Amino acid sequence: MKIVIGNDHTGTEMKKAIVKYLTEQKHQIINLGTDSVTAVDYPDIGQAVGERAIQEKNSIGIVICGTGIGISIAANKVKGVRAALCNETLLAKLAREHNNANVLALGARVIANQNAIWIVEMFLNTAFDAGRHNLRVDKLNKF
Ligand code: RB5
After folding, report:
1. Which of 2, 40, 59, 121 has its CA 20 to 30 A from that of 48?
2. Measured between alpha carbons, how far is 30 from 132 in angstroms, rounded to an integer?
3. pLDDT tens across the length of the chain (143 residues)
4. What is the distance between the alpha carbons of residues 72 and 89, in angstroms, rounded to a whole number?
């Protein structure tokens, strides 16, 4: 799968750990985040990842900032993005099944890198459970 990933300076180490894992799993990575710890602004990265994730067919976005909150707010401003901030695997599973989330947001100051990798794994391996959730997600898409 194609993964569009981006992070601010607080998420650089977590991003590198996730990219290593995803590369080992043979996913294709588009890295739009910083690779340094020099401060950058999370709205720019959230917007860039959101836009690219919508452009790229069959892609999933991953955004990382300190809490995951700011960058998820930014990504969610892009039309078509349904970004979900998940700090445990159950949230990742439900965000895919119920919300058809297409961008995963993570907080690098909130969870450990290994937890983030488990959350990414769950997010990528869970399908949308259309059925009764379809109508609700359609309503989101109409905003
Ligand atoms: C940067 O200091 C921090 O505010 C940012 O990473 C994020 O947590 C914002 O929501």
Report:
1. 121
2. 33
3. 999 999 999 999 999 999 999 999 999 999 999 999 999 999 999 999 999 999 999 999 999 999 999 999 999 999 999 999 999 999 999 999 999 999 999 999 999 999 999 999 999 999 999 888 899 999 999 88
4. 17
Number of the ligand 1 atom closest to the C-alpha atom of 67: 8
Catalytically active residues are 98
Counting the structural domains of the chain, the total is 1
Give the global pTM: 0.97
Find the domain containing 108 and state its range: 2-141
Mutating to test ligand 1, I would choose from 67, 77, 109 the residue with most ligand atoms within 8 A of its C-beta, which is 67
Atom 1 of ligand 1, residue of closest alpha carbon = 66
CATH number at residue 112: 3.40.1400.10
Sign, CA dihedral 18-118-71-40, equals negative
| CA atoms of 23 and 135, how far apart (whole Å) | 35
Q: How far is ligand 1, taken at its centre, from the CA of residue 93, in Å?
A: 25
Residue nearest to atom 5 of ligand 1 (CA): 66
